[in-house]
Each structure stands twice: as structure tokens, then as C-alpha cells.
Amino acid sequence: MNTNLLKPGLAAYTGLFLLFLYGPLIVLAILSFQGPNGGPQFPVQEWSTYWYQHLFGATDTSRVSQLPVGESLLRSLVLAFMTTVVSTVLGVMSAEAFRVRFKGSGPAFYLIILGMMVPGVLVGLGMALLSNFIGVSRAWWGTAFVLHVVYTYPFAFLVMLAIFNRFDRTVEEASLSLGVSPAQTFRRVTFPIIFPGVLSAMLFSFTLSYDEFSRTLFTIGRELTLPLSIYGTFSVEIYPNLFAFGVLTTVFSFTLLVVYGLLMKRFTAVKSGSYKGQEEAA
Amino acid sequence: MTTVTTDMPDTTETSPAAAREANERRRALMLLSPGLLWMILFMVLPMLMVIYVSFWTQTTFAVNDTLTTASWERFLSSATYLGAIGTTLRIWAIVLVATLVVGYPVALFIGLFVKNQTVQTALLVACVIPFWTSFLIRVIAWRPMLGTEGAINTILMNLGLINEPLTFLLFSEFSVLVGMTQIYCVFMVGPITFMISRIDESTIEAARDLGASFGTIFRRIVLPLSMPGVIVGAIFVSVMVLGEFATAASLSGRKVNLLGNIIVSQVGSLKWAFAAVAGVVLTIIITAVITLALRVVDLRKEM
């Protein structure tokens, strides 16, 4: 059979697939180094970092107005932070609840999961209608914030559920039967075991909220978040400063990912170190 | 566990097991209630509000809560709105098939042929990395790719394959389909790879020892065992594509109007009741799709 050809064939296909995934971003990155007189298309007239300087307002005068990112960036970061805290706490609590079988756990599970399934435009519309109805004005820290949690809490919940599923309950039971209080047991036994999961849940919540767009569109009110500021520029002509911005946000996200990786690594290193110490003491 | 308690003679003292069980259930409910309350207040209630407002009376600049079916009648008798339902379903079906066709071979390669755990992880990470770029940036990145002076046209012209730039690439249904396929195919690759990599190696070896060709192995073992992954992927892709509007708005040049785009434009002109009607229609479609998919696979078991 042609099984010998199959593997290289699929490997080549996977290579093409990665090109399909990365192609547009590579093109975007190349065009972000377009010269001052160039547009968002080929050819690149001269290589420069003009559009990066433009982003920070470091160019003198320009035919293109600056991207309105400053304040909305700060707002997005604060909002993502608030969302991360609340959804991670809710996620840990709910996953902890699901460790015992109880009546109605099925519907409860699906109610939580629904939060990541419901299209943003629908729940956003509903929230806007609801806030109009009860007379609450829309704001990023209010109507948009609660929807961000609706969206990210299911992710945090699923991550924690996966962690709890793999986690040996007897360790906790040993602690409880030795007379340690439930609160202490959670802090000293449960939490250190689930911490990598908590970190992943936080990373999920933060990046999803930071990038969230469709839920925010109808619920934001006057002060925009970063994705909405960016979306606003789509309706007019786009310039390479948008591409430069895209490259910078990608770099920022990677920094976040690396920090997460380092934290994970450091945490696991500390844990194995403490085990070694215990062995020596014994 | 409950049968144990019913079998017990009903005396004044409850058994320790039953007491413990009741205690655990109370604790579970306490832990769960804040999350459930949040979902009911900020997800279920808004969705009910959409249904309620779809029966409100729409005037030029406002809505009032006099109940009427006027918005529904207008929606269901308008060619534009019914067309949007058709477009939404067509785009959804094409993107769903496209993500499956594009993604399945990749999942097959990573899940079945890459034996080295590190390489496997690296490939999956490579698929996920674009997700750390903003969604809107990934959408807009297709403009310099597909435009008349974009990368593809430039390359094709330089190769001498075409003399005139291809104009159907951007601001057409084509660009929307390509953009959505690229953005959502990873949601297909992930679950399918997960299911394929879980297949026991010895099952495939046994089949091979018994003389099965790769075609047979694929058809009889790999494909059936990967089906839950396909369904989970299809659910992810479906809910995201059906609720889409940004890709169509940014890449179609207003040529593609999905239900999501209808909602956005109606809200923009303060036609809340019409937007609500479109919202309810969209909800019905999505519910139907998910219900259908969940008949095939129990999501909770697969997680």
C-alpha cells in the first residue's frame, strides 16, 4: 500500500496548513515596516520603522491620524484584570462543587458551558436591552464587565474541572482526618496542587477578555476598550500603523505567554525541591 | 448511593453516610450558587429580554413595550432579512465543511503519525500561537493578503501567471470564507487531534498484523474513534460562525450580510425590536444545531 508516501504527504500538507495560518500575519508584519509614503499594500517602498513611531506619536506631522489606543489600552487591561479575578474565583468554586455528584449537576454544567457558547452579539444585545429596560447606563466596568465574566468563567471552570478530575482526593482526606480544618486543608493541600490550573485559568480569562469584541460592542457605552477602538478604524481607510499595532500586540501577548511559562516552570521546580527536602528530613 | 439510605430502617438518627452526603450536597450548592446566579442574571435574563423585546412596538427612533407581532411580520416578509438567514446558513455550512476538510489531515498527522511527544506538542502550539494575536488583527491581515495589490496578486503577477490582478479575492464572499476558515479551523484541529492521539497504539498494530490496509484501519478504527472530536469541533465552529459579523463586515465590503450583521446595523439605527427579532431567529438556529450535535455526543463525558 502507499503508506510510505502517506506520512511525508501529510507532513507536507501540515506545512502548507501552517503557512495558511501564518501567511497573513507574516504579510502584515512585513508591511508594518512600510515607508512613510507607502500604503497598506505592496510594494514596500522603503524599509522603515516610521509607522511604529507614528503609533507613539513620535512623528512630526502626518497625513494619517494617530490610532486612538492610549486610554482604551489601559481600560482593556483593567477590565481584563477584573474579569480574570472574578472568573477564576467562580471557576475554582464551581469546579470544586462538581467533585461530588449532586442532583441537577447536568443542567448546572450546561448552564455554565452555555456562557462560552452563546454568540457575543446575542448576549450583548440582550444586555443592552436589559440595561435600557431597568435604566442602568452602559459602561465598560459594568455591563461589559459582567458579560466578559459570562464568557471567561466557563473556560476557567473547564480548566479547573480537568485539574480536579486528575487530583487524588485521598491526600485531602488524609489532611482532614488528621484534624486540619477544611479552610487550612484548602490553603495548605488543595491550593498548591491546583495552582498550575489556576494559573492556566487566569491566562485564559485574561487573554479572552483582553481580546473580547462582540460581547463588548453593544454594552460598552461611551468609553471604548482596545478592540473597539481598533474596529472603529476599519470603517475608514486603513494604514500601516494598524499593522504596526498588530505586531506590537502580538509581541505583548507573547511576553504574557512567556511570563506564564516561567511562572509554571518556577512553580514546578519549587515543588520538586520541597519534596527533595522532605525526603532528606525523613 | 441514595438507595442505601432508603434501605435503612427509618429511625430517629440518620446514618453517618447520609448525613455526610447531605452535607456534601449542601456544600456543593453553596459553592455553585454564585456562579449560577451570575449566569442567570447576566446571560439567561438578557436572552429572555431579547425574546420579550422582539414583541415590542418599534417606532422610528424608539421602542415601547406595547406588545405586537409587527416586527416579526416585517422580518418574515422581508426578502433582505430572509436572505440573511439563507446567507448565514450557507456560509456556516461551507465554513464547517472547509474547516473539517482543511483540519482533519493535520489532526491525523499530529495525532497518529507524530510519535515524538515533544514534536506533537510543538506542532499543536504552532497551531494555537496565532490565537495570541488579536482576533480583529487576524481578520484585517487578510486585506493585504488578498487585495488587488496584495501578496497573492503580487506573487501571481510576478510569476507571470496572471496579467490583471484577481479582484474576486477581496471584498467578496470568497474572502469571508477564507478568513473564517483560517480563524476557526484550529477549533477543529484541536479536538480531533486529541481524540486521535488517545487511540490505543495496540489496536492499530493488531489491525495491521491481521493484514488490514491503512485505508481499512482509517475507516474502521481511526475515523469512528475520532468522531467525538469532529462533533466537538463542529459545535465550536458552528456557534462561532453562526454568531459572526466582524469578519463579514471587514472583508466582504458589505456584500455579505449575516444575521449578526443585521443585528449590528439595526442596533446602529436604534431599531431594537428588529434587532431582537433577528436575535431570536439566530438563537433558534444555533439551538437547533447544538441540540442536533449533542444527540450524537455527550459533551460532558468527552471533556
TrEMBL record, chain A:
Fetch the CDD domains from UniProt. TM_PBP2
Transmembrane domains' residue ranges: 12-33, 77-98, 110-134, 140-164, 185-208, 242-263
Query: Does this entry carry the keyword Transmembrane helix?
Result: yes
The record's GO CC annotations read: plasma membrane
- Please give, as recorded in its UniProt entry, the membrane topology of this protein: Multi-pass membrane protein
Q: Check the UniProt entry and state the signal peptide residues, or none.
A: none
Q: Which keywords appear in this protein's UniProt record, sorted alphabetically?
A: Cell membrane, Membrane, Transmembrane, Transmembrane helix, Transport
Major location category of this protein: membrane
**Where does the record say this protein resides?**
Cell membrane
> What's a single GO BP term from this record?
transmembrane transport
Domain named ABC transmembrane type-1 is located at: 73-260
Family of this protein: Belongs to the binding-protein-dependent transport system permease family. CysTW subfamily.
Name the UniProt record assigns to this protein:
Putative spermidine/putrescine transport system permease protein
Native species: Sagittula marina
UniProtKB/TrEMBL annotation, chain B:
GO BP: transmembrane transport
Q: GO terms for CC?
A: plasma membrane
Domain (ABC transmembrane type-1): residue spans on this chain: 85-293
How does the protein associate with the membrane? Multi-pass membrane protein
| Family matches, as Pfam families | BPD_transp_1 (PF00528)
Gene3D superfamilies cross-referenced by the UniProt entry: MetI-like (1.10.3720.10)
Signal peptide coordinates? none
Q: Where on the tree of life does the source sit, at the highest rank?
A: Bacteria
Q: Which UniProt keywords apply?
A: Cell membrane, Membrane, Transmembrane, Transmembrane helix, Transport
Where does this polypeptide localize? Cell membrane
Q: Which InterPro entries match?
A: MetI-like, MetI-like_sf
> Where are the bilayer-spanning segments?
35-55, 91-114, 121-141, 166-189, 229-252, 272-297
- Stated family: Belongs to the binding-protein-dependent transport system permease family. CysTW subfamily.
Protein name (Swiss-Prot/TrEMBL): Putative spermidine/putrescine transport system permease protein
Organism classification: Bacteria, Pseudomonadati, Pseudomonadota, Alphaproteobacteria, Rhodobacterales
